[in-house]
Each structure stands twice: as structure tokens, then as C-alpha cells.
């Protein structure tokens, strides 16, 4: 069994937008008001409550432009929020839909063909573990099964740092 962690959008990406930065299409994010249903923030991985302002913008969760660097619309709280930290726990926003696309990517950010599957929300951790156990898969994306929007990334859990002990102790 491969231990996994759910990874939110990097805080540096969120801060860039909160501080007036432009999105993946070099445009200013749009401000909307949440209707309370289906507006998940990709930084805190919680739904944005009804009446709260949010940013909607084009996001590319890849460092480099290349054919597999998918870009699409996502949401972010307009006011800064705390990044999701309970990485070993499936984020609450992944219960807002019955299913999601779960897909594996290589270390050079290419889709691994044949790995994408519409997956029931309660099966996401198990399917991600299966994918991450493969040597050719570096990480997994969770995407909307309806719109293909990026939700979060799943990676192998980092090994805990063990204190060194002296062999002479």
C-alpha cells in the first residue's frame, strides 16, 4: 500500500492572484459571488460559502507549457485563506460531487494514457494509491468529471524524517 497526500494549489500561486497578479491566460481574475453550491477553493480545498466573493481564473497546474499542460477555470477565495494541511485526509470538497476524473502523470508532466478514470469520490484514495504504486506515475490529478477542472493533486506521502541514532549509544 502506497501512502498518499492530497496537495492544494501552492500558496505562492494563490498569493500571486490575491496581490493582483494575472492568470495563466495573462488576464485579471474575475470576481464573482458564490451561490454556495459547487464553488470549491483550490487553496483551502473547502467550498466557498454562499455570499462570499471568489476569484475565477484560468489555472495551469504545470510549470512549463507543453502539449499536456491542461489549463482551465478554477475558484479561489477572494480573501486569503489558509492552505489545506490535512494532506493525508481526503479534502471535504471532494464530497461535493459523486465522482471525479482521476488521472496519472509522469515526472515530466505527461498524461499516462489509460490511467484516467471517472472514480466515485469514496474510491479516489484507493485508485490514487494503485496509480502511485506504478513506477511510471509521479503524481495524480483529481479533476471534475463534468467539466475537467483541476481540483487537487495527489502524491506519494513523503517519508518521515527519522532522527539519526548513534550505533554507539
Automatic annotation (TrEMBL):
InterPro entries: DUF1203 (IPR009593). It comes from the Bacteria. Pfam families: DUF1203. This is DUF1203 domain-containing protein.
